[in-house]
Amino acid sequence: MKRTQIQLDEATHAALRKIAYDTGASMSSIVRDTLSRALGTARPRPVRKPKLTFVGAGSSRHPTLEPVSENHDEAYVQTIEERLRRR
Fold first, then answer.
1. 65, 71 in Cβ contact below 8 A?
2. pTM flag (> 0.85)
């Protein structure tokens, strides 16, 4: 792997940073993947499992599945589906 440096305008940097935050990927990996696809050099990458928040004792809130303690499986599935849609 070779190291290089690029300069981005503010809007591009902000968009890249948001994608990195939303997906949990580094900005560098997003740039590498995007360039690889654009240049036709992309290789299949392993599927990343989304980061999951901790489910445990305490007070949990969910907009449609209260109480979460009784509906945790449904809340879990909805959370994963929402994160996958954002990608």
1. yes
2. no
**Is residue 62 domain-shared with residue 37, that is, in the same domain?**
no
The total number of structural domains in the chain stands at: 2
For the stretch 1-41, pLDDT in tens is 788 899 999 999 999 999 999 888 889 989 999 999 899 88
Q: Residues 15, 30: one domain?
A: yes
According to DSSP, residue 9 is labeled: -
CA distance linking residue 42 with residue 37, whole number of Å: 5
Among 87, 67, 65, 83, smallest CA distance to 75 is for 65
Q: Which structural domain, as residue segments, surrounds residue 11?
A: 1-46
CB-based burial, 43-55: b 16+ in 10 Å, e otherwise: eeeeeeeeeeeee
Tokens linked to 11: 């809007």
